[in-house]
Amino acid sequence: MSQQCGNSRIAGCSFSVHPMSDEFVEHIKGSLKETDTSNVWIDTDEVTTTVRGEIEHVFDVTRAVYLQIARSGVHVAFNATYSIGCPGDSEGDQYTGDIGDPANGLRDVKQNTNAKFSLYPMGGGDYMDVIYREIDRMKEKGIEVSAAHYATKLSGDVNAMFEGLEDVFCETEKSGSSHTVMTVTMSANSPSEKGKRS
Amino acid sequence: MSQQCGNSRIAGCSFSVHPMSDEFVEHIKGSLKETDTSNVWIDTDEVTTTVRGEIEHVFDVTRAVYLQIARSGVHVAFNATYSIGCPGDSEGDQYTGDIGDPANGLRDVKQNTNAKFSLYPMGGGDYMDVIYREIDRMKEKGIEVSAAHYATKLSGDVNAMFEGLEDVFCETEKSGSSHTVMTVTMSANSPSEKGKRS
Question: Residue B67's domain spans which residues?
């Protein structure tokens, strides 16, 4: 579980949320305002928002930003690249204050979501068994898992899904991969859920 | 250049477009209708659209879907994972008809866009010099290039940018990387262009 995953290396995530609504600015600003980001370094530019800090805080903040918008009922997409151990990464731009527990709650909010994720362990390690085990654990949490081109497809509750994604990221890191990247694409409240989009 | 990049291996892209408008369905359906996808295998599910085929057609189709929406003036985001040579990839789901030249034109449409891309050459190869050379070529085409956490940031004309991205993907493949993944996030017509989003 995430609480056992700590190490001193800085993790991070470059992500974006896309509310498909004329009120997208209000949704994004409202979500960022409601989300407690005090435990991460955070910066938003023209393309993405980047958060950096301990793994559990990086996942907590990205989950909360997405969930704040999704629970409003608007159709929203979420795209994220989680990374740890990139050889070209700087030691700068990291949070240096007091680190507490993940602060964003919302764990009881039920929200169905569809997702695809891909894991790129680029620094060695013995990770295949780890990945299969963690995917099995996602199934035990009620997440539907299926294969897709270039990704693994997930469907189920958003909190269970983020927990599973954090675990597979952590456990891959612990398996010895010195540089791990995980990309995640999510969609909630799509009018075409359970069907084709086009 | 892309025309010299052919090999027999199937490439593909899992991507999504997110028009931030109440009319997102019309934008997406209209774009897919206007785009010539006859040279690729294509499938849309709840999360992404996947196209598979020759590299130049994969880039042509994804560029056109994004550009069709962007040129309407709506704020739109594009997220894509381009992949070739994944060891777990199937030989199935590929286009088997006559392959012609990229069919989607729109090369003269001017559209400014901001982007971040990351390249993951996971199958060896001597690619670092290749990547630096191709990034220099993007600069020569008028694309602004800067560093960001977990990605390289690009800003400029969307057609020049897609050409540059296709070239860097192709040249990395040609450098000997047996499995190459490139992720791309783009944004056009953002109300916060040249500024902060939040």
Answer: 11-88+110-197
Q: Is B23 part of a structural domain of the chain? A: yes
Q: Which CATH number covers residue B31?
A: 3.30.70.930
Token pair 């955070």 is found at: A42
- The answer to whether B25 is annotated as binding is no
Q: B82: nearest CA in chain A?
A: A150
Q: What is the DSSP code string of B85-119?
A: --TT--S-S---S---S-----TT---EEEEEEEE
Six-digit token string for B9: 């291996």
pLDDT digits (tens, 9 = 90+) for A28-65: 999 999 999 989 999 999 999 999 998 999 999 999 99
Distance from CA of A170 to the nearest CA of B (A): 18
- Our count of domains for chain B comes to 1
Cβ contact, residue pair B48, A116, below 8 Å: yes
Closest chain A C-alpha to B37 CA, distance in angstroms: 13
Q: Give a yes or no: residue B33 inside a domain.
A: yes
Residue B188 covered by a domain: yes
- A154-178 pLDDT tens trace: 999 999 999 999 999 999 888 888 8
Q: Which two tokens stand for residue A114?
A: 């569809």
Contacts of residue A183 in chain B, CB cutoff 8 Å? 81, 183
Q: pLDDT per residue over A72-90, tens digit each? A: 999 999 999 999 987 766 6
Residue in the structure block whose two tokens are 């309407």: B72
Residue range B89-147, pLDDT digits in tens: 666 666 656 678 888 988 889 999 999 999 988 877 777 788 888 889 899 999 999 98
- In-domain check, residue A161: yes
A145 burial via Cβ count (<10 Å: 0-12, 13-18, 19+):
middle
